User: Fold this.
Amino acid sequence: MLTGYLVSVTMSLQSVRLSSAGLVFLLSFVAYFAAISNAAIRNYTFIIEKKTVTRLCKQRIIATVNGQLPGPTIHVRDGDTVNIKAYNRAGYNATLHWHGVEQIRTGWADGPAYITQCPIPPGGHYTYRFTISGQEGTVWWHAHVSWLRATVHGAFVIYPKKGKPYPFPKPLAEIPLVIGEWWNNNPVAVIDEAVLTGGAPNISDTFTINGQPGDLLPCSSSETFRFAVKQGETYLLRLVNAALNSGHFFKIAGHEFTVVAVDACYTKPYKTDVIVISAGQTTDVLITANQPVGKYYMAARPYNNQDSFDNTTTTAILEYIGHQHSTRPILPSFPAYNDTATVTRFSRALRSLASREYPVDVPHTIDESLIATVGLGLRPCGTGKTCDGPNGMRLSASINNVSYVEPTIALLQAYYFSINGVFTTDFPSKPGVRFNYTGEDILESLWVPDPATKVKVLKYNSTVQLVFQATNIFVAENHPMHLHGYNFYIVGQGFGNYNPVTDPLKFNLVDPPQRNTVIAPVSGWVAIRFRADNPGVWFLHCHLDDHFTWGLNMVFLVQNGHGPLESLEPPPRDLPKC
Ligand SMILES: [Cu+2]
Assistant:
């Protein structure tokens, strides 16, 4: 609101014919210092620790932060500096990632294991320090090692600077709704076993909303998450999909949403009765309690391209103040689990605000044009061995046929301290072999990716276009692709094979939506653009953790520019040792 205040003061000064230029300068100066002094330091203590909980009638010991599931919500303003002191008492190697925080020059605080840091060992600690710089909205945080994030995650809310309003009507109240995924067994053991056998990990037992399966699931009724609303009022729901292996449809019976932001990037208001939220994504929606006083399920169901998946419906309850306690909530109807048309309609409807206050800065000229096939594959099990994947092989996944291999030294450290032999810089900028990526009959010789740790080097400030081309190798799937360190613009998407001549003619360079996680559609493609102005080592990966474990990952190494303001900061002293 500072800007608005200045404008109104300026206008009133002009209306009484005073020379305003000097005053505007003075006021800007005051505003600048006001903004600086508004920025706060926010300190959090996150103790990663075990906790015994009961879900689906069974007791389990889970890893948590501060004993909570989901973990604590972080509340900061744009411009704040955040210090999160993490103590690891969980008995596992741990890291924390601030999903969607751009980490300008502070890659050391980003958190993915063996990318920007080695894990915090059991008994160790590490303080994540970073400053929020020009971001507003809902991001989230989660463990970024093995499958620990199943229970180590939470919402992270960035409010605008003090006095600056939202670009939508102020809601009466706000509430984070975190979709999670629950296994009756330890998820770390589930993925360890899958890696051992080479087969698919066991599917989960249910999904959760704010840590609870909801009353359609056994032994869950009394704990179901409830949100009380007053008839006629409008609320902001901050949706986070923290599920490991599934995108979701989210609905509230009888109610319509207005989407106002995705991945902490504002959108033009979009009215819909169904939200599509893939793994890793966030969505801010307004809902108005404009239905008869009563109880309404808020429910999430998976979006999935395969037949074998956790097909449960997780619910929470929206209850109007004054409702009858005896009535059962109304359940919304859902699209089919594989309704890609609804997913496409939703993603195509999203548009940036593209206003004076929230302009679009999408690159129009491109320095680095990349095409990256994303998909599954199979690797040999090892001589004399048989794996649980198809044909006795090991399930695998790749980008441009490179299946990412996790190193034993973090890549950012290897780069910063010039340690040789950890990675190579020859990540391919396009597929090595051209074929009908989305055809039905892909030669089996193309199913086997190369395991390697390769990075793609980008010059500071270079403009990048990256087209994710999903393949039908082995099975056709969608992939929610997440880039660390950046938001990117989604300039186009389609089905079939990307055509580099005709498809760019249809790109949206006017009001493309901005995100940090985008769905590469099943048997289709999506094109993103960004400017590589954040030096460091940045992970880019599928946010479905089974695909992630199989290697559907790549890494950008963004070089420093000129001077300290365009360079990665030095590592903090307490950075965990490898
Ligand atoms: Cu994937």
Remarks:
- The longest strand covers residues 41-55.
- The domain at 368-566 is CATH 2.60.40.420 (Immunoglobulin-like).
- The two ends are 46 Å apart (CA to CA).
- The chain has four domains: 2-38, 39-167, 169-349, 368-566.
